[in-house]
Design goal:
CATH architecture of the largest domain: 3-Layer(aba) Sandwich
Helix content: 25-40%
Number of strands: 21
CATH topology of the largest domain: Glutaredoxin
Oligomer: single chain
Structural class: alpha+beta
Number of helices: 14
Strand order of the largest sheet: 12-16-21-20-18-19-17
Radius of gyration: 25 Å
Length: about 425
């Protein structure tokens, strides 16, 4: 049966340095290149160079290189008239990480952004570009770098990897551009390396897996993992619903957030007023959140993470009202009412936000905030961009942390399709946090 997965990179977003996905169908890869010795074709002094491994890849040269030229042209990078030269993999003195591979010779400024090295006078493009362009042409990229895969398990609830071993090897291999030879589950202390979250995906290889591929980073001792701002997406591809964090969250979350209650156990909710799942979350668990805050079981901290730009003024007026009064419960009432309107079918606007803020904070505070809105909006947008650069791209995101037990957990999205998170699931997480 064919297996599909989200691949490492799309060409367009590679230009901007953001990992996304493309679907590939798994097939058994062809054999690796043999001993160098086949002479290359005569290439012009300036040329896009296509390196093929077998006849199937050779026949796809025109498709792959034409697709690359067209993709670049969409972003104002014109290499349409650059000649193409195809050479066999055996003509090079070293094997490359991915086949077919894209290289060039001469001075092609539009491709300089993607250069990660040089071999035999050819400049080597980022292997993620080569792999993506091959997949777009219907080829399965051949990965020559081998690695052992270690899955470091944690103790947090709902943090199990739900893919089978074969799929795990394939998914991690495609996302890391490495050929996974084995997989083993180990404990957190067994490898002797520092990790930031569990479960952790750790690769061990004699190859430098981080060289020329910015989404894999070294941990020392020939160990590698995915970069911090993309590892959450990798875990999602593996079916992980939550993951345990080893270090406390960024202190800016507490400094910038709206606080409700006081406790050693913290819950940060990254939200957006037009996020349907945020509305579902607050609608289903609002009373429980309120009671947990009132009884000191949790300090709930609301953090703006703007996904829908039209809600920025609404967040700004609510945030300003909180800063004027420091009443987190009134802020929560505003949010809960706006979410209730939204989940009931109302596309909430600034008029709804003003009315609700006046209801819970008073008209005087609403009037004080009116001239401050531009400043608040700029601050909220800047902080949202900062969060996204840290890898927080979706709402709701729940970040639990205990200052007493030094345990933490992140839930990206929802655990339940109808309620977002059930009271039982929520209680299970809090019990683990406290224990």
């Amino acid at each position: 049966m064919n297996r599909k997965l989200v691949y490492g990179l799309t060409f367009a977003v590679l230009i901007f340095g953001i990992i996304l996905g493309v679907l590939l169908v798994y097939k058994k890869p062809p054999a690796l290149p043999g001993t160098p010795g086949t002479p290359p074709e005569n290439c012009p002094a300036t040329a896009l160079v296509y390196v093929y491994l077998n006849d199937q890849q050779k026949s796809a040269a025109d498709t792959v290189t034409s697709n690359l030229k067209l993709a670049l042209q969409q972003y104002g990078l014109n290499i349409i008239n650059v000649p193409v030269c195809s050479i066999p993999a055996t003509s090079l003195s070293q094997k490359l990480r991915v086949y077919p591979a894209l290289l060039f010779k001469g001075n092609i400024s539009a491709l300089s952004l993607f250069v990660v090295g040089e071999i035999d006078g050819y400049k080597v493009l980022n292997p993620g570009v080569s792999a993506y362009m091959a997949s777009q042409a219907g080829l399965e990229p051949v990965l020559t770098y081998t690695a052992e895969l270690y899955i470091v398990k944690g103790t947090a609830p709902f943090s199990d990897i739900r893919e089978n071993e074969s799929n795990i090897k394939y998914i991690v291999g495609q996302l890391s551009l490495s050929n996974i030879t084995s997989i083993q589950q180990v404990s957190v202390n067994s490898l002797g390396i520092n990790l930031t979250r569990l479960p952790a995906i750790v690769l061990k290889s004699n190859y430098n897996l981080s060289s020329g591929y910015q989404y894999v980073v070294p941990l020392g001792k020939n160990y590698y993992t995915f970069r911090e701002d993309v590892v959450g997406q990798v875990l999602q591809y593996l079916g992980v619903q939550t993951y345990e964090i080893i270090a406390p969250p960024n202190p800016d979350l507490l400094r910038k957030g709206v606080k409700m209650g006081d406790s050693d156990n913290l819950l940060f909710i990254l939200e957006d007023y037009h996020c349907p799942y945020c509305a579902m979350l607050v609608n289903s668990t609002g009373n429980m959140l309120y009671n947990y805050a009132k009884t000191g079981k949790l300090q709930v901290v609301f953090v703006d993470l703007i996904v829908h730009s039209e809600v920025v003024p609404m967040h700004a007026i609510a945030k300003c009202a909180y800063n004027q009064s420091k009443d987190g419960y009134a802020y929560f009432n505003v949010s809960q009412e706006l979410y209730h309107l939204y989940i009931s079918g109302t596309s909430t606007t600034m008029a709804d936000a003003n009315k609700t803020v006046a209801k819970y904070f008073g008209k005087n505070i609403l009037d004080k905030c009116a001239p401050l809105l531009n400043s608040y909006q700029s601050d909220i947008q800047a902080f949202s961009r900062n969060l996204m650069q840290q890898g927080f791209t979706g709402t709701p995101t729940l970040i639990f942390w205990s200052n007493k037990t030094h345990k933490g957990l992140i839930v990206e999205g929802c655990l339940d399709i109808k309620l977002c998170i059930t009271e039982q699931q929520f209680s299970q997480i809090v019990s683990w946090l406290q224990g």
